[in-house]
Design brief:
Length: 243
C-alpha cells in the first residue's frame, strides 16, 4: 500500500527505461489495483509485464463488493497475480483453502499465480519450516486437477521473519527450503519440479541478490521494499541476468 499517482508514474517510467538494458531476465511488477491502469500505460510494449497483488477466489461477475476478479485483471493486461502473500495470510487471516481457491481462479483466468509460502519466526524456531511449507503447498496441489499444472505457477518462498525486518535468511538457509519445495513437488511429478520457478522473497536487495540468485534452486526474487526504488530494483534485476 505505497505510492501516489505521481510517484508511481515516476517509478514506472524509470523502470521501463532501465529494463531496456537487461537481457535474459523476466521482470514483472505488481502495483496496487488502483495503479494497474498506469502500469498498462507506461509498460505496454516494454519488456516488463505487470500483475496484481491479490485476486478474488471467484471469476465472472457477481455481488462480491470490494473484490477484483481475474477476468478484470486480464482486461487491464495483467499476466500475473500474487496469492497467499504472508500479509494476506497473517494480517487478514486468509487460510490455505482460500489461497488455493484464489490460485485456481487465477489459472482459470489465464493468469500466472505467484504462490507465496513461508513460516513465521516461532515456526522456524520450532523447526517446523518444512512442515508449514509442505502444508501450504499440498493445499494447492489438492485443489488442482493435475499436479503438472504447477508448471504454470511461480512459487515464492518468503520466510515471514525476514520480510520488512531487515533480517535475511542466509543463501544457504534459503536454498535449503527451495530445495525442499522442489523435492516435495518431485515426489508428485519430477518434470513439473524441474520446470517450476521458485523465487526467494525475504528482504532481497542489491547487496545480497547475486549471492542469493547463485543458489541452485533459487530462480529469482519476489521483491518488496526495494522495488519502490528504481535503481535498487533494477540492480536486483541485473543480478538475475545469466552469466
Amino acid at each position: 500500500m505505497h505510492g501516489s499517482r505521481a510517484r508511481v508514474d515516476e517509478l514506472l517510467t524509470a523502470l521501463r527505461a532501465g529494463a531496456a538494458g537487461l537481457s535474459g531476465v523476466d521482470v514483472a511488477v505488481c502495483p496496487p489495483f488502483v495503479h494497474l491502469a498506469a502500469a498498462a500505460q507506461h509498460l505496454a510494449g516494454s519488456s516488463i509485464v505487470w500483475g496484481a497483488q491479490d485476486v478474488c477466489d471467484r471469476n465472472g461477475e457477481g455481488a462480491f463488493t470490494g473484490e477484483i476478479s481475474g477476468d478484470m485483471l486480464r482486461d487491464f493486461g495483467c499476466s500475473h497475480a500474487i496469492v497467499g502473500h504472508s500479509e494476506r495470510r497473517h494480517v487478514y487471516g486468509e487460510g490455505d483453502a482460500l489461497t488455493a481457491a484464489k490460485l485456481v481462479a487465477a489459472l482459470s483466468a489465464s493468469l500466472t499465480p505467484i504462490l507465496c509460502v513461508g513460516e513465521l519466526l516461532e515456526e522456524r524456531e520450532l523447526n517446523a519450516t518444512e512442515m508449514v511449507v509442505e502444508r501450504q503447498l499440498l493445499a494447492v496441489i489438492a485443489a488442482l486437477d493435475d499436479v503438472r499444472t504447477l508448471a504454470r505457477v511461480v512459487i515464492a518462498y518468503e520466510p515471514v521473519w525476514a520480510i520488512g525486518t531487515g533480517r535475511t535468511a542466509t543463501p544457504e538457509q534459503a536454498q535449503e527450503v527451495h530445495a525442499f519445495i522442489r523435492s516435495r513437488i518431485a515426489r508428485e511429478d519430477e518434470q513439473t519440479a524441474a520446470k517450476v520457478r521458485i523465487l526467494y522473497g525475504g528482504s532481497v536487495k542489491a547487496s545480497n541478490a547475486a549471492e542469493l540468485f547463485a543458489m541452485e534452486d533459487i530462480d529469482g526474487g519476489l521483491i518488496g521494499g526495494a522495488s519502490l526504488q528504481a535503481d535498487e530494483f533494477l540492480a536486483i534485476c541485473g543480478a538475475a541476468q545469466p552469466g
